[in-house]
Amino acid sequence: MAVETPAKPTIADKIYDKMFHNYVWKSIFRTGYPNTPRNQMLVVATNVFLHLHPTRIHRTHVKITHTYCLGGLSFFMFLGLTITGILLMFYYVPSVERAYLDMQNITTTVQFGQMMRNMHRWMAHAMVILVFMHMMRVFYTGAYKPPREFNWVVGVILLVLTFLLSFTGYLLPWDQLAFWAITVGTNIAGSAPVLGPKTRFWLLGGFEVGPDSLIRFYTLHVIGLPLLAAIFMAVHFWRIRRDGGLARPL
Amino acid sequence: MATAVVARPVARPQARARDEEVLVWPDLVFVEFIAALLFTITLFILSVVVNAPLLDQANADVTPNPSKAPWYLLNLQELLLHMNAAMAGIIIPTVWLIILGAFPYFDRDTEGQGAWFSTKNSVKLTAVAGTVGFVGTWALILWDSGKIAFFLNDWFNLSGGDSLRFLENVRSMQSQLPWPEWSREITYLPFNLRILDGTGSGGPTTFQNLDFPGWLVEQAIPIAVLLGLPCLMMYTMWRLGWITNRRDALIALFSGFVGAYGVLTMVGTAFRGQGQELVFPWELKVSEGIPGQEAPH
């Protein structure tokens, strides 16, 4: 009687098995490769980064024209800005004596320095635009409606934080563009009735843009505002999940 | 054996919610990955091709003309040219952000969420309100910069003469009308109220007298325009039957804002030359105020 025997494992199968089915690999990645529905759900549910998402979502939400990925891309810009920002921080000292020299060094002598700086700047512009467009998307799809009222408010706060993050970064190159843009910008803040002059003084650490302003803007730019933004983003994303994912017709 | 058959409607199988769902991996993760990849590549290419600007070292003694805020604040800098600084720079953006944040508390209907332009007239409202915001803001800027009066005179030889000069722009209502002397200093408080005064620069910190023509031109007329024109637009749309619920009203308001905001940002960025004069983008020049090196006029 003929007996069907399984095909002998090829050399590739053996290598695959040795690489992905060993003790160490399994200690890092508990699920197998996500090529079965079970593993696909497990990988989303057990991975700390992916578990921002539910394991399943409604069909309409993967349609690109529903969201144009604008919110996700805004977050992606934030991540990219963090990475390029950290790289720039290695070379930049926020003092009036060194800031401009460091900028010149970054653009001329540091390997890929100009590239990092360009990426950081264009990503920052992209983030401002993307966040604004994300707001338009949410508005025109009526996604602010109950129960998502407060998440819209958190979004408005994040829009303001994005502007502030970009604004505080604008001073750091310490060139004419930076100096005068911040002078104009803080004059606008200073024009507020009653609280304006104090606000301006508090922002600049003096009556005009100077060394104290540079260190204030730097501190706000690299730690204060990103931390605040991260907290609000955490609330923003958490509430999307709690409110049942993206809005869709009832 | 007799069997009693009771007639009842055939139960249709309900589409289970689960059947409408897809797995996040791969369906969503794939879309996100592609989007992130596209943006990375685009920004990478942009960074290779275009360098971030780096001008001369900061110098408090050399003022560039024009000096401009970062581009996303140029809408406020543009407003600043037309009205009181505190209003343009602080009060209007703050009030607008509060209104914006309050949208969901005004429109609480859950109907029509999660779909683009869900109400019957929403596309029409968006297009018309956006256009009104766009054209209206341009018209107001052109009027307030005196260009409309200039073109009426230059192209059609129409001139109001001295008697209509006060209509040239908003400031000329202050300077060209025969305001009595007392109206320029109306005392509204019997004492000089000082709040947090002492820094010497910036916004108003003392309160006692009112310059009525100045107040009219810098605050009253801009407030009337900023509140009145959107209300007029929305009232008209309501009377026309385009706005039927709160969602429609918000769509009209928001679209008008996007149109106006876009124009203000664009004009501030590309149409404001030396001395914040209204120029064409290709006439934009920046001089650094160094004697002998200014751009030619």
Describe the structure.
The complex is a heterodimer of chains A (250) and B (297). Chain A is mainly alpha-helical and 250 residues long. Chain A is 66% helix and 1% strand. Chain A is built from eleven helices and one strand. Chain A is flat, with a radius of gyration of 25 Å. The mean pLDDT of chain A is 92. Chain B has 297 residues and is mainly alpha-helical. Chain B is built from eight helices and five strands; from the N terminus they run βααααααββββαα. The chains are: A mainly alpha (250), B mainly alpha (297). Chains A and B meet through helix 3, strand 1, helix 4, helix 5 and helix 6 of A and strand 1, helix 1, helix 2, helix 3 and helix 8 of B.
What would you say about this model in short?
Chain A is mainly α and 250 residues long. Chain A has helices spanning 11-20, 23-28, 37-46, 64-67, 70-89, 99-108, 113-140, 149-170, 176-190, 196-204, 211-242, and one strand at 56-58.
Topology:
The complex is a heterodimer of chains A (250) and B (297).
Chain A: H1 11-20, H2 23-28, H3 37-46, E1 56-58, H4 64-67, H5 70-89, H6 99-108, H7 113-140, H8 149-170, H9 176-190, H10 196-204, H11 211-242
Helix pairs in contact in A: 5-7, 6-7, 7-8, 8-11, 9-10
Chain B: E1 21-23, H1 24-49, H2 74-80, H3 85-106, H4 122-144, H5 147-156, H6 172-175, E2 186-187, E3 193-194, E4 206-207, E5 209-210, H7 212-239, H8 246-270
Antiparallel strand pairs in B: 2-5, 3-4
Helix pairs in contact in B: 2-3, 2-8, 4-8, 7-8
